Amino acid sequence: MYIVDDGIKLHVELEKPENAPSKMPLVIVIHGFTGYMEEEHIVAAAKACRDQGYATLRVEMYGHGQSEGEFKDHTLFKWINNAIAVIDYAGTLDFVTDIYLCGHSQGGLTVMLAGGLKHELIKGLIELAPAAMIPELSRKGELLGIKFDPNYMPDDLEVKPGFLLGNNYARTAQMIHIEDAIDKYDGPVLIVQGTNDYPELMESAKYAADRYKNCRYVEIEGSEHCYNGYIPQMTEAIKDWLPKI
After folding, report:
1. Tens digit of pLDDT for each residue in 13-71?
2. CATH of domain 2-241
3. Helix or strand run (H / E) with residue 157
4. How far is residue 120 from each of residues 87, 108, 127, 186, measured CA to CA in Å?
5. For residue 9, what are the β-bridge partners?
6. Confidence of residue 160 (pLDDT cuts 50, 70, 90)
7. Which long-range contacts (CB under 8 A, 24 or more apart) does 181-184 make?
8. What is the reported pTM?
9. 117 Cα distance to chain centroid
10. Phi-psi domain of 205 (left: phi exceeds 0; alpha: psi -120 through 50; beta: other)
């Protein structure tokens, strides 16, 4: 199944809980940088939401998974537009009573930004190891440990072996300030963060949690970025926070 955003097809998977009622809330679930919807932690997060009685809509963003667009050309601006298009689509579904957003890493940052933009339409936010540090690090001239001149960037950055990223990614990220989105959102927020994650990411996730008006911050001792070996703890945190339907 695909949703079209400005001519780009986004691959999505809509699933409902067992014995689903005619009406129910929906959680939009977004993967992270270089990720896709079938990663173990993304599938597990979506299932945790369905176990609570929520429908889920997993989304593969621009340049990722089976969605259109080249990875090299993706930016946070494009992902924000993708998120807006998916939220608008969810609003047309006649069974949906409320919309929640859930995202991991760069998907968590996208959820943070989209939550501010669509604040009156979003019932709650689940941010799994949100990469809230990306804009600030881009302003300083750093992405995934790669240093560059923030004012005179190279055309491309090899952020992972085999993954080239155009400099428009960093240019647009520099223009984003997470405080604008955080301050705009008054609803409930869950942030789940492992203690063995990247230090800059952990610091920015805690900063976001402290700045939100209504946030539960859950640390998973020993977990790294994708919760390998700690997925049950991550899903339990979601279930403890998300009201059962």
Report:
1. 999 999 899 999 999 999 999 999 999 999 999 999 999 999 999 999 999 999 999 99
2. 3.40.50.1820
3. strand 156-160
4. 12, 19, 18, 9
5. 4
6. confident
7. 181/112, 181/113, 181/114, 181/115, 181/116, 181/117, 182/112, 182/116, 182/208, 182/211, 182/212, 183/116, 183/211, 184/115, 184/116, 184/117, 184/119
8. 0.97
9. 14
10. alpha
106's CB contacts (< 8 A; 6+ apart) are 32, 33, 35, 76, 79, 131, 134
Residue of 206, 69, 75, 203 lying closest to 138 (CA atoms):
75
- Ordered by start, the domain boundaries in the chain are 2-241
- The token pair at 4 is 């079209």
Three-state DSSP state, 177: coil
Under 8 Å between Cβ of 179 and 155: no
Q: What are 174's two structure tokens?
A: 């520099």
Q: Is 76 helix (H, G, I), strand (E, B) or coil?
A: helix
- CA of 24: how far to CAs of 21, 27, 100, 112, in Å? 7, 10, 11, 23
